[in-house]
Amino acid sequence: CSMVKVKKENQPARLKIIQTAFDLFHKQGVNATSVDEILEKSQAGKSQFYYYFKNKEDLVHSVLMFFYGQLKNNELPINNKIESWKDLERWFYNFVGMQKAMNCDRGCPIGTIGSELVTGQDLIRQDIKLIFEFTRNSLSRFFHGLKVKGELKDSVDPDVLADFCFTVMQGGLLVAKINRESDIFENSIQQALAYLKSLAK
């Protein structure tokens, strides 16, 4: 979860629309953002919009897939490569830093889109699950690696720890947005890290 940063602009108009839509969706949600507002802020015309996208839902799908591509290519400010306890701590606190940089005015951009899902939006749901699973799998690989090396207690399930970390991150971002401050998020991270390290051998 982080802001999209365009690296290459093979289709400048399309990418500008995607980038503008992402920022507006992150700020105010999909439902509160009209196509007209996106076009006005991206300085694009309706003919350009309908050349690249079938409708608004197709734009949401394109935004999510562009974000997923950036995530896979490690082109986002949040680094999901976690190979040590220090990396895990950095991963958590990067989200706190992101929140503070935005004055705790926004939550997770993908979570914000996901919170507005309704029945029948199977493609968008699938896109969001793909993004969430990528992040969760990075956490899972770290804990599985510790387990293989004998550095976690035998009773510990690495996948459950990954779920725990992911949920602390998502919940923390939401609570920080609601409270407009990150204290609870930071306290939760401290407790989570203390608990996780207590499971180490």
Summed up:
With 201 residues, the chain is an all-alpha fold.
**What is the average of the pLDDT values?**
94
Distance between the termini: 31 Å
- The structure class reads mainly alpha
**What is the helix fraction of residues, given as a range?**
55-70%
Number of domains: 2
Tally of helical segments: 9
Tell me the β content.
under 5%
Q: Whole-number radius of gyration?
A: 18 Å
What sort of overall outline do the alpha carbons produce when their principal axes are compared? Answer: elongated
Provide the low-confidence segments as ranges: 2-9
Total number of strands: 0
* CATH domain class of the largest domain: Mainly Alpha
In words, what does this structure look like?
This protein is mainly α and 201 residues long. It folds into two domains: 12-72, Arc Repressor Mutant, subunit A (Orthogonal Bundle), CATH 1.10.10; 85-198, Tetracycline Repressor, domain 2, CATH 1.10.357.10. It contains nine helices and no strands. Helix 4 (56-72) packs parallel to helix 7 (122-148) and helix 5 packs antiparallel against helix 9 (183-198). The longest helix is centred in the last third of the chain and has 27 residues, at 122-148. The protein is elongated and about 60 Å long. The two termini are 31 Å apart. Mean pLDDT is 94; it is low at 2-9.
